[in-house]
Amino acid sequence: MSEGSQGNSPAFGQVVIGPPGSGKTTYCHGMRDFMGRIGRQVTVVNLDPANEAVPYACAVDIAELVTLPDVMENLRLGPNGGLIYCMEYLEANLDWLQEKLAAFRGHYYLFDCPGQVELYTHHDALKNVFAQLAKWNFRLAAVHLVDSHYCTDPGKFISVLCTSLSAMLHVELPHVNILSKMDLIEQYGKLAFNLDYYTEVLDLSYLVDHLASDPFFRNYRRLNEKLVEVIEDYSLVSFVPLNVQDKESMRRVMQAVDKANGYAFGEQEHRSLEALMSAAVGADFHFSSTLAVQEKYVQSQDKAVEEEVMGL
């Protein structure tokens, strides 16, 4: 693989980023299986040196180069410092990564990245690795996963928006933000607004007003207003909801990522996708049931208000 090219054609892929527990490894596993069923050759690259129990067939594993436990033991670093050292070590040994990736020329790549947030918001090691991949003719999109349960807490959701915006500006790749684990959202509480309010990041002043009703956040109204202004001024952040177990949801995410990195599949893959989706009807958790979650919450809230009014 020469500088500036990988064979004669570009290589396409995703760098899967996000905080710990957001479902990055599960996403890589599910997306690899989904794409494999429509005929796309997928290579999963584990770039997380702390990921010791990889549930998928890992073609390239950073553990062959460096592991977090070894770094922590030998250099007496904590988990955060150890992860940063591992990423800097990877950046200094990109020839190793280049040699490993060359064995899978022509494949579609999923890069499973670590869960340390500062690696995507202000540290440069992974950003430089992604930039080098671009020089090797990789067309990458960053897939940023966020646990959907943050939607049930307005304060945490504003924090998530700030983190997502910071990652988008720092990583400097086409970006798709994902609300993961949508099938579990109803376990965490009620949504204050419809689901599309959170996915499309609509008028956030309503979110500030909702926060102001909480005595704890009332004193921080001006701070929240300024944070919301920053998010809305850039007008970049939106989310695609995801349930890995639902094929329709996976298709929507895949198409959003393909649009972001410019991947265009052929007629055979299109036919395979149609066959897979038609076979999925009635067999799996439907995306519509995910959307029904927020409708149920809104209806229950309306009913509670109605009963309260009638009781007055």
Explain this structure to me?
The structure is a single chain. It contains 14 helices and seven strands. It is globular. Strands 3-2-4-1-5-6-7 form a seven-stranded parallel β-sheet, sandwiched between helices. Helix 7 links the parallel strand 5 and strand 6 (175-180). The longest helix is centred in the last third of the chain and has 25 residues, at 287-311. It is α/β, with parallel strands linked by helices. Residues 282-290 have low confidence and may be disordered.
What's this entry about, in short?
With 312 residues, the chain is of the alpha/beta class. Helices cover 52% and strands 12% of the residues. Helix 2 packs across helix 3, helix 7 (154-171) runs parallel beside helix 11 and helix 9 runs antiparallel to helix 11.
User: What letter string, H or E per element, gives the SSE order?
Assistant: EHEEHHHEHHEHEHHHHEHHH
Quickly count the helices. Answer: 14
Please compute the radius of gyration using only Cα atoms: 21 Å
Arrangement of strands in the largest sheet? 3-2-4-1-5-6-7
Give the key terms:
312 residues, alpha/beta, seven-stranded parallel sheet, 14 helices, 52% helix, globular
Topology:
Layout: E1 11-17, H1 24-37, E2 42-46, E3 60-61, H2 68-75, H3 79-92, H4 94-102, E4 108-112, H5 118-121, H6 125-135, E5 138-147, H7 154-171, E6 175-180, H8 195-199, H9 205-212, H10 215-218, H11 221-234, E7 239-241, H12 247-261, H13 267-280, H14 287-311
Parallel strand pairs: 1-4, 1-5, 2-3, 2-4, 5-6, 6-7
